[in-house]
Amino acid sequence: MLNALKELFRPAPSPPAPRVPAGTRYYVIGDIHGRLDLYEAMIDAIEADAADAGDLEVRIILLGDLVDRGPDSSGVLATTREWQRRRNVRVLTGNHEEMFLQAFEKPEILRHFLKHGGRETILSFGLSSGLSRKKFNTLELEELFDLLPRIVPQSERDYIASFEEMIVAGDYVFVHAGVDPAQPLEAQKRSDLLWIRDRFLDHEGPLEKVVVHGHTIFEKVMDCGNRIGIDTGAFRSGVLTALVLEADQRRIIQTCQQDCGPAEVFHGDRAR
Protein backbone atom coordinates (compact mmCIF):
# COMPACT_ATOMS: atom_id res chain seq x y z
CA MET A 1 0.00 0.00 0.00
CA LEU A 2 2.81 2.40 0.95
CA ASN A 3 4.64 1.69 -2.30
CA ALA A 4 1.43 2.31 -4.24
CA LEU A 5 1.01 5.70 -2.55
CA LYS A 6 4.64 6.61 -3.31
CA GLU A 7 4.06 5.81 -6.96
CA LEU A 8 0.84 7.84 -6.98
CA PHE A 9 2.49 10.99 -5.57
CA ARG A 10 5.84 10.62 -7.34
CA PRO A 11 6.71 13.90 -9.15
CA ALA A 12 6.25 13.74 -12.89
CA PRO A 13 9.57 13.34 -14.72
CA SER A 14 10.97 16.51 -16.23
CA PRO A 15 10.50 16.73 -19.98
CA PRO A 16 13.68 16.19 -21.97
CA ALA A 17 15.67 19.32 -22.78
CA PRO A 18 15.19 20.62 -26.33
CA ARG A 19 17.83 19.48 -28.79
CA VAL A 20 19.19 20.37 -32.20
CA PRO A 21 19.80 17.51 -34.67
CA ALA A 22 22.58 15.10 -33.73
CA GLY A 23 25.96 15.90 -35.21
CA THR A 24 25.31 19.64 -35.56
CA ARG A 25 26.35 22.82 -33.79
CA TYR A 26 24.31 25.96 -34.40
CA TYR A 27 25.50 29.55 -33.99
CA VAL A 28 22.48 31.88 -34.04
CA ILE A 29 23.23 35.61 -34.28
CA GLY A 30 20.80 38.32 -33.20
CA ASP A 31 19.99 41.63 -34.88
CA ILE A 32 23.17 43.23 -36.29
CA HIS A 33 21.68 46.52 -37.54
CA GLY A 34 24.67 47.75 -39.49
CA ARG A 35 27.26 47.19 -36.73
CA LEU A 36 29.92 45.72 -38.98
CA ASP A 37 32.58 46.12 -36.27
CA LEU A 38 30.71 43.87 -33.83
CA TYR A 39 29.74 41.48 -36.61
CA GLU A 40 33.31 41.02 -37.83
CA ALA A 41 34.41 40.38 -34.24
CA MET A 42 31.58 37.84 -33.90
CA ILE A 43 32.64 36.02 -37.06
CA ASP A 44 36.19 35.79 -35.73
CA ALA A 45 34.90 34.52 -32.37
CA ILE A 46 32.67 31.90 -33.99
CA GLU A 47 35.42 30.69 -36.29
CA ALA A 48 37.74 30.33 -33.29
CA ASP A 49 35.03 28.55 -31.30
CA ALA A 50 34.20 26.24 -34.21
CA ALA A 51 37.82 25.11 -34.46
CA ASP A 52 37.06 22.39 -31.88
CA ALA A 53 33.86 21.22 -33.57
CA GLY A 54 35.57 18.11 -34.94
CA ASP A 55 33.10 16.10 -37.00
CA LEU A 56 30.15 18.31 -36.04
CA GLU A 57 28.44 20.15 -38.88
CA VAL A 58 28.63 23.87 -38.12
CA ARG A 59 25.50 25.78 -39.12
CA ILE A 60 25.03 29.52 -38.75
CA ILE A 61 21.75 31.45 -38.71
CA LEU A 62 21.30 35.22 -38.79
CA LEU A 63 17.96 36.25 -37.30
CA GLY A 64 17.36 39.21 -39.59
CA ASP A 65 17.61 43.00 -39.29
CA LEU A 66 21.09 43.07 -40.73
CA VAL A 67 20.39 46.61 -41.97
CA ASP A 68 19.44 50.07 -40.64
CA ARG A 69 20.42 52.24 -37.71
CA GLY A 70 24.10 51.26 -37.52
CA PRO A 71 26.71 52.85 -39.81
CA ASP A 72 27.53 50.05 -42.28
CA SER A 73 24.59 47.97 -43.45
CA SER A 74 26.17 47.55 -46.89
CA GLY A 75 29.32 46.16 -45.27
CA VAL A 76 27.28 43.72 -43.19
CA LEU A 77 25.58 42.40 -46.32
CA ALA A 78 28.86 42.07 -48.23
CA THR A 79 30.53 40.32 -45.28
CA THR A 80 27.60 37.90 -45.01
CA ARG A 81 27.91 36.99 -48.68
CA GLU A 82 31.61 36.31 -48.25
CA TRP A 83 31.00 34.19 -45.13
CA GLN A 84 28.40 32.16 -47.02
CA ARG A 85 31.09 31.14 -49.48
CA ARG A 86 33.01 29.51 -46.62
CA ARG A 87 30.30 28.37 -44.22
CA ASN A 88 26.72 27.13 -44.10
CA VAL A 89 25.17 30.52 -43.30
CA ARG A 90 21.41 31.02 -43.62
CA VAL A 91 19.76 34.42 -43.25
CA LEU A 92 16.27 35.21 -42.02
CA THR A 93 14.49 38.33 -43.19
CA GLY A 94 13.59 40.94 -40.61
CA ASN A 95 11.07 43.76 -40.61
CA HIS A 96 13.84 46.22 -41.51
CA GLU A 97 14.75 44.23 -44.61
CA GLU A 98 11.09 44.29 -45.55
CA MET A 99 10.89 48.07 -45.07
CA PHE A 100 14.07 48.52 -47.10
CA LEU A 101 12.73 46.64 -50.11
CA GLN A 102 9.30 48.29 -49.90
CA ALA A 103 10.97 51.73 -49.83
CA PHE A 104 11.68 51.26 -53.55
CA GLU A 105 7.95 50.89 -54.25
CA LYS A 106 6.34 53.97 -52.69
CA PRO A 107 7.70 57.32 -51.43
CA GLU A 108 5.58 57.10 -48.28
CA ILE A 109 7.20 53.81 -47.33
CA LEU A 110 10.59 55.40 -48.01
CA ARG A 111 9.64 58.18 -45.58
CA HIS A 112 8.85 55.57 -42.91
CA PHE A 113 12.08 53.70 -43.69
CA LEU A 114 14.16 56.86 -43.28
CA LYS A 115 12.64 57.47 -39.84
CA HIS A 116 13.76 54.01 -38.67
CA GLY A 117 17.42 54.02 -39.60
CA GLY A 118 17.12 53.91 -43.36
CA ARG A 119 19.19 57.03 -43.94
CA GLU A 120 22.28 55.31 -42.54
CA THR A 121 21.57 52.26 -44.69
CA ILE A 122 21.34 54.25 -47.92
CA LEU A 123 24.50 56.22 -47.14
CA SER A 124 26.41 52.99 -46.48
CA PHE A 125 26.05 52.04 -50.15
CA GLY A 126 27.94 55.15 -51.20
CA LEU A 127 26.53 58.05 -53.17
CA SER A 128 26.48 58.24 -56.94
CA SER A 129 28.84 60.58 -58.72
CA GLY A 130 27.91 64.22 -58.39
CA LEU A 131 25.90 63.64 -55.20
CA SER A 132 27.64 64.78 -52.04
CA ARG A 133 26.46 63.96 -48.53
CA LYS A 134 25.58 67.61 -48.09
CA LYS A 135 23.38 67.53 -51.19
CA PHE A 136 21.92 64.19 -50.11
CA ASN A 137 20.71 65.85 -46.90
CA THR A 138 18.82 68.49 -48.89
CA LEU A 139 16.99 66.10 -51.22
CA GLU A 140 13.22 66.12 -51.20
CA LEU A 141 11.54 62.76 -50.61
CA GLU A 142 10.51 62.36 -54.26
CA GLU A 143 14.04 63.19 -55.43
CA LEU A 144 15.57 60.56 -53.16
CA PHE A 145 12.94 58.03 -54.24
CA ASP A 146 13.96 58.56 -57.88
CA LEU A 147 17.68 58.23 -57.04
CA LEU A 148 17.37 55.20 -54.77
CA PRO A 149 17.63 52.51 -57.50
CA ARG A 150 20.89 54.08 -58.67
CA ILE A 151 22.34 54.10 -55.15
CA VAL A 152 21.39 50.53 -54.20
CA PRO A 153 22.05 48.02 -57.02
CA GLN A 154 19.37 45.54 -58.07
CA SER A 155 21.74 42.70 -57.16
CA GLU A 156 21.71 43.85 -53.54
CA ARG A 157 17.92 44.05 -53.50
CA ASP A 158 17.65 40.57 -55.02
CA TYR A 159 20.00 39.22 -52.38
CA ILE A 160 17.94 40.70 -49.54
CA ALA A 161 14.74 39.39 -51.13
CA SER A 162 16.20 35.87 -50.99
CA PHE A 163 16.30 35.79 -47.18
CA GLU A 164 14.18 33.12 -45.48
CA GLU A 165 11.21 33.52 -43.13
CA MET A 166 11.58 30.50 -40.81
CA ILE A 167 14.10 27.74 -40.12
CA VAL A 168 13.36 24.59 -38.09
CA ALA A 169 16.08 22.51 -36.46
CA GLY A 170 15.18 19.69 -34.09
CA ASP A 171 13.17 21.07 -31.18
CA TYR A 172 13.86 24.69 -32.16
CA VAL A 173 12.40 27.11 -34.67
CA PHE A 174 14.24 30.28 -35.67
CA VAL A 175 12.34 33.40 -36.77
CA HIS A 176 12.95 37.13 -36.67
CA ALA A 177 10.18 38.47 -34.43
CA GLY A 178 8.22 35.48 -33.10
CA VAL A 179 5.17 33.38 -33.92
CA ASP A 180 1.43 33.61 -33.44
CA PRO A 181 0.87 31.31 -30.43
CA ALA A 182 -2.62 30.44 -31.69
CA GLN A 183 -1.41 29.02 -35.01
CA PRO A 184 0.71 25.96 -35.92
CA LEU A 185 4.07 26.68 -37.52
CA GLU A 186 2.88 25.74 -41.00
CA ALA A 187 0.08 28.36 -40.76
CA GLN A 188 2.18 31.33 -39.62
CA LYS A 189 1.76 34.63 -41.46
CA ARG A 190 4.81 36.48 -42.76
CA SER A 191 3.60 39.63 -41.01
CA ASP A 192 3.75 37.88 -37.63
CA LEU A 193 7.12 36.24 -38.27
CA LEU A 194 8.60 39.68 -39.04
CA TRP A 195 6.64 42.06 -36.79
CA ILE A 196 4.79 40.34 -33.90
CA ARG A 197 5.42 41.47 -30.33
CA ASP A 198 2.90 41.41 -27.47
CA ARG A 199 0.75 38.41 -28.47
CA PHE A 200 3.94 36.37 -28.70
CA LEU A 201 5.98 37.88 -25.86
CA ASP A 202 3.08 37.69 -23.37
CA HIS A 203 2.34 34.03 -24.13
CA GLU A 204 3.46 31.85 -21.20
CA GLY A 205 2.24 28.45 -22.33
CA PRO A 206 4.12 25.85 -24.37
CA LEU A 207 4.75 26.38 -28.06
CA GLU A 208 5.16 23.81 -30.80
CA LYS A 209 8.95 24.28 -30.63
CA VAL A 210 11.27 26.55 -28.66
CA VAL A 211 11.29 29.82 -30.59
CA VAL A 212 14.64 31.60 -30.95
CA HIS A 213 14.05 35.18 -32.06
CA GLY A 214 15.35 38.71 -32.27
CA HIS A 215 13.35 41.92 -33.00
CA THR A 216 12.65 42.87 -29.38
CA ILE A 217 15.62 44.26 -27.46
CA PHE A 218 16.55 42.84 -24.05
CA GLU A 219 19.49 43.81 -21.85
CA LYS A 220 20.53 40.16 -21.68
CA VAL A 221 19.53 36.92 -23.36
CA MET A 222 15.91 36.23 -22.38
CA ASP A 223 15.32 32.49 -21.92
CA CYS A 224 11.65 32.00 -21.04
CA GLY A 225 11.53 28.26 -21.63
CA ASN A 226 9.14 28.45 -24.58
CA ARG A 227 11.20 31.14 -26.34
CA ILE A 228 14.70 32.66 -26.29
CA GLY A 229 15.20 36.30 -27.26
CA ILE A 230 18.75 37.21 -28.28
CA ASP A 231 18.47 40.79 -29.58
CA THR A 232 20.68 42.74 -27.19
CA GLY A 233 20.41 45.99 -29.15
CA ALA A 234 23.79 45.99 -30.88
CA PHE A 235 23.23 49.32 -32.64
CA ARG A 236 22.78 51.21 -29.35
CA SER A 237 24.19 48.96 -26.62
CA GLY A 238 27.34 47.89 -28.43
CA VAL A 239 26.57 44.24 -27.57
CA LEU A 240 25.96 41.64 -30.28
CA THR A 241 24.87 38.18 -29.12
CA ALA A 242 25.08 34.68 -30.59
CA LEU A 243 23.35 31.65 -29.09
CA VAL A 244 25.30 28.39 -29.47
CA LEU A 245 23.23 25.18 -29.59
CA GLU A 246 24.72 21.69 -29.55
CA ALA A 247 22.76 18.56 -28.61
CA ASP A 248 20.76 19.74 -25.55
CA GLN A 249 23.31 22.36 -24.45
CA ARG A 250 23.15 26.15 -24.76
CA ARG A 251 25.75 28.84 -24.31
CA ILE A 252 26.33 32.36 -25.58
CA ILE A 253 29.06 34.36 -27.28
CA GLN A 254 28.94 38.15 -27.20
CA THR A 255 31.03 40.81 -28.88
CA CYS A 256 30.99 44.09 -27.01
CA GLN A 257 32.25 47.58 -27.69
CA GLN A 258 33.77 48.96 -24.51
CA ASP A 259 34.28 52.72 -24.05
CA CYS A 260 34.30 53.33 -27.82
CA GLY A 261 37.26 50.96 -28.16
CA PRO A 262 37.55 47.82 -30.27
CA ALA A 263 35.04 45.02 -29.90
CA GLU A 264 35.78 42.46 -27.19
CA VAL A 265 34.55 38.88 -26.96
CA PHE A 266 32.76 37.32 -23.99
CA HIS A 267 31.67 33.72 -23.58
CA GLY A 268 28.91 32.40 -21.34
CA ASP A 269 28.25 28.83 -20.24
CA ARG A 270 24.50 29.01 -20.70
CA ALA A 271 21.79 31.32 -21.98
CA ARG A 272 19.98 33.00 -19.12
How do the helices and strands line up, and which of them pair or pack?
Blueprint: H1 2-8, E1 24-29, H2 36-49, E2 57-62, H3 73-84, E3 88-91, H4 95-102, H5 107-124, H6 133-138, H7 141-151, H8 154-161, E4 167-169, E5 172-174, H9 190-195, H10 198-201, E6 210-217, E7 222-223, E8 227-231, H11 234-237, E9 239-246, E10 249-257, E11 263-268
Parallel strand pairs: 1-2, 2-3, 5-6, 6-8
Antiparallel strand pairs: 1-9, 4-5, 7-8, 9-10, 10-11
Helix pairs in contact: 2-3, 4-5, 5-7
Give me some keywords for this one.
five-stranded mixed sheet; 11 strands; globular; 11 helices; Purple Acid Phosphatase, chain A, domain 2; 272 residues
Overview of the structural elements:
The protein is of the alpha/beta class and 272 residues long. The protein has one domain: Metallo-dependent phosphatases (Purple Acid Phosphatase, chain A, domain 2, 4-Layer Sandwich). It is built from eleven helices and eleven strands. Helix 2 runs parallel beside helix 3, helix 4 crosses helix 5 and helix 5 crosses helix 7. It is globular. The relative contact order is 0.17. The model has no long low-confidence stretch (mean pLDDT 91).
Low-pLDDT runs: none
Q: Find the CATH superfamily.
A: Metallo-dependent phosphatases
Mean pLDDT across the residues is 91
Shape: globular
Briefly note the CATH topology name: Purple Acid Phosphatase, chain A, domain 2
Structural class: alpha/beta
Radius of gyration: 21 Å
Number of helices: 11
| Domain unit count | 1
Q: Judging by the overall fold, what is the CATH architecture?
A: 4-Layer Sandwich
In percent, how helical is the residue content? 25-40%
